[in-house]
Amino acid sequence: MPADRRRHRTKLDAAARDREIEFSGIDARADASGRSPGPRVARVPETHVHDTFSVDGIDTDRRERLLEVVLADRERVSAVSATARNGTVGIHHAPSLSRDDLRGTLESLGFVVDAGDAAFETRRASQFASARVAVAVLFGLMVATPYIAVLYPTRAEWLFYDPVTVQYLQSILDSQMATHFFVNLGALSGIAFLVACGPRIRRAIGAVADGRVTNDAAFVAGVTALFGYSTLAAFTGFEGTVHYDLVAYAVVAVTLWTHFGVDDPVTASTTADEPFSEAASEADDEPIAVTDGGR
Question: CA 198, CA 221: separation in Å to the nearest integer?
Fold first, then answer.
């Protein structure tokens, strides 16, 4: 994330100067690569409540850190967590300090605060997006490994092992063990597709129901057809090549592109697709980790 070149020129900088907050330490941390190790820890009283705001304008590491320091310096605020990537600010504060007061403070610092209560939804969408990336990559690797170790050598033996080894691998695929082998690959690639591409599948179903042909519908139809073809080839007398690897590769590629290849990976995921519940319990004067919510 770029450093803030508007130093000492914004409302946030003016507020920091009014509170006599030192800029040197914040600027040094912002110019350094990465955060200090470990989560930020704050001591939150049991009586304090938590509010989360969806904020536009936290566009640099320095502004993120400076906003946390300025808000935490306010009376009756015990902990602050600003997340530039999600555009959210979480604040632990005394009940006597209302949400409207905090919203007014954020706006007075030059930030645009979402009129609705979309902060939880935005942060939740980002967390689900990160989980889908993890599922796609991990399950993709679990599918690719047996293909690289067993199946690819039998398909292009001149690139891999000696003929004796290839013949041994082929005998494994011709045995009853191959059924368990393909069941594992089919389950892994299928779960990765359903979990990692869940929102895309729902959008595709909606488009087809409306009689529209979209990129999502084309992708889902192609992957489903490839998965069905591979299943027929693996478990029936149908002569064909099992391509669960291509299913996994497609899922990984599309998931990574959706997450990292667009400006705002959570914009299309902020609808209430997944059930959401939040439970929070805090012990009196126990230290808690102020997390960055989906970083």
Answer: 13
Question: Which has the higher per-residue pLDDT, 172 or 183?
Answer: 183
From CA 42, how far away is CA 61, in angstroms rounded? 20
> What mean pLDDT comes out for the span 63-85?
88
pLDDT of residue 160 exceeding 80: no
How many residues comprise the chain? 295
SS3 279: coil
Q: What is the pLDDT at residue 1?
A: 43
149 C-beta neighbours (distance < 10 Å), count: 11
C-alpha 233/C-alpha 221 separation (Å) is 18
Helix (H), strand (E) at residue 54 = strand 49-56
Contacts of 249 (CB under 8 A, 6+ apart): 140, 144
Q: What is the distance, to the nearest Å, from the Cα of residue 270 to the centroid of all Cα atoms in its chain?
A: 13
What is the rounded CA–CA span in Å between residue 288 and residue 42? Answer: 6
Instruction: Give the pair of three-digit tokens for residue 205.
Output: 């179903």
Burial of 163 (C-beta count, 10 Å sphere; 0-12/13-18/19+): exposed
Summary mean pLDDT of the chain = 77
Cα(242)–Cα(228) distance, integer angstroms: 10
Q: How far apart are CA 281 and CA 173, in angstroms?
A: 53
- What value does the mean pLDDT take over residues 76-81? 90
